[in-house]
Amino acid sequence: MDEATWDERIAAFWADADDERPDAMWAALEPLLAERAADDAAALFERASLHDMLGEEQQAVPLYQRAIAAGLDAERDGFAVIQLGSTLRNVGRLEEAAELLQTRVDDPSLGAAARAFLALTRHDQGRHAEALRLVLTDHAPHVPLYGRALAEYAGLLTD
User: In what residue span(s) does the Tetratrico peptide repeat group domain sit (predicted)?
Assistant: First the structure.
């Protein structure tokens, strides 16, 4: 099977995704997943993503974990870490979410997303100053006149 063709069809599936039509979504995704082995990392990730999108976080978590363990391509691996971190947060597994997201805060392609979801997690943990510090530190470079002041104030925040 041509990987690009499968990936293109997966991309088309997500372009048409609608969480208001769960049965139709599963009916469209299942044939694509059936083209892959049951333990295929990409297929596990795509299945987890649909569970997640449909608000079925408990089903998504172990699938994300299996997908990551099975070895995803770099792009999907990054998405899986962010999505799993967010999902762990949503199901109240805050320490696990924070630990996972922390592993990507310095990743040039994922850092801002990892820090944003880590900020949400820290907020849920009651670590409000740390959450605000993460957001302000990322935002400061985009505020030409006051970015330096924002970065300094962010550094002064403590819980």
Answer: 42-157
20 occurs within a structural domain: yes
pLDDT averaged per 10 residues, the chain (length 159)? 79 94 96 96 98 97 98 95 98 98 93 95 97 95 94 91
Distance between CA atoms of residues 4 and 78, nearest Å = 19
Tokens 């924070």 appear where?
Answer: 98
Tally of CB atoms within 10 A around 9 = 13
> Could you tell me if 105 and 152 lie in one domain?
no
Count Cβ neighbours within 10 Å for each residue of 67-84 and write b for 16 or more, e otherwise: bbeeebeeebbbbbbbbb
Question: How many beta carbons lie within 10 A of that of residue 47, not counting itself?
Answer: 23
Which domain CATH number covers 34?
1.25.40.10
Angle at 96 between CA 44 and CA 83, to 5 degrees: 40
Residues 6+ apart with CB under 8 A from 112: 138
Query: Furthest-apart CA pair in the chain: how many Å?
Result: 55
Distances (CA, A) of 22 to 38, 46, 53, 61, 145: 21, 14, 9, 18, 47
